[in-house]
Amino acid sequence: MTTNINDLIDRILAKLPPGMVDDIMDDIERDQPAVWVRNGWVSMYHDNGAKPLVVGNVCYKFTDKLDASVAQRIITQIDALAAEFAKTRLVLMDEDLGQVGYAHSQTPDAGQTTIITVNNAVGNGKQWDDLIREDLVQKFHPPGFDARGGVEGVLTHEFGHVLGFKVGISGAVLQAGRVVRKWIPLEGNISVDLSKYAGASPQETVAEAFVEAHNAPNPRPYALAIYRQLVDAYNAGTRFDAGNSLEVDPESMKL
């Protein structure tokens, strides 16, 4: 590490809650020092200046540009998911992402932490819900995606990526594809039996299956099959990159 990198890391760490910093540093020093320098927080964490709100293993950093009702809905949904999947650690932020989507997720440390960035340019809760409803008419997302609301569907989808990062299917598409293909029922078509967006990549297949199985009142067998494999791997502490985290580049998941 050079002095300049160290200085930059120190400035980033100063913006995060002390307890989260201690956990992050413990993981890095124990498992993956090179990831910190090559990929990690220096390139992925861009402080938005918001005061942090820490709830368990989640740090929320929301600015005034994010609609207050949307922020509260995000917190409610993520708090519930983080309690259900307690081995996860997240930073939730907002940013103007323009027209590129509702949110995106990244991991700076091979699944130890996920940074979810929410698009504050989408608007208020009704605008979020209306846009998601339009997506569902086009079958872009699976049935039940908005069963708990459009905002809630987006954040549950992103949480599917959180678990994907955790089990090591967040790297190269070919590597992830070999794993995910084993989870998919032999018969069927991803774009038909799950959603159009699920066909974008193996990682999106997993995230779309997760949101349908978790939120829909009557999830279909296709989604349930993938969801169960993902959750079983998470519960077992399995990593499909064989623990070789230094070879897995962080993947940006955009929705």
What's the structural blueprint in terms of helices and strands?
Elements: H1 3-13, H2 18-31, H3 33-38, H4 41-44, E1 53-55, E2 58-61, H5 68-84, E3 90-95, E4 103-106, E5 114-119, H6 125-137, H7 150-167, H8 173-183, H9 190-193, H10 202-215, H11 221-236, E6 253-254
Parallel strand pairs: 2-3, 3-5
Antiparallel strand pairs: 1-2, 4-5, 4-6
Helix pairs in contact: 5-7, 7-10, 7-11, 8-10, 10-11
What does the model show?
Mean pLDDT is about 80; it is low at about 1-5, about 30-40 and about 245-255. The protein has about 260 residues and is an alpha/beta fold. The protein has 11 helices and 6 strands. A hairpin with a 7-residue loop joins strand 4 (about 105) and strand 5 (about 115-120). The chain has one domain: Collagenase (Catalytic Domain) (3-Layer(aba) Sandwich). Helix 7 packs across helix 10 and helix 10 (about 200-215) packs across helix 11 (about 220-235). The chain has helices spanning about 5-15, 20-30, 35-40, 40-45, 70-85, 125-135, 150-165, 175-185, 190-195, 200-215, 220-235; strands at about 55, 60, 90-95, 105, 115-120, 255. The chain has a 6-stranded mixed sheet with strand order 1-2-3-5-4-6, covered by helices on one side. It starts with a helix and ends with a strand. The radius of gyration is 18 Å and the shape is globular.
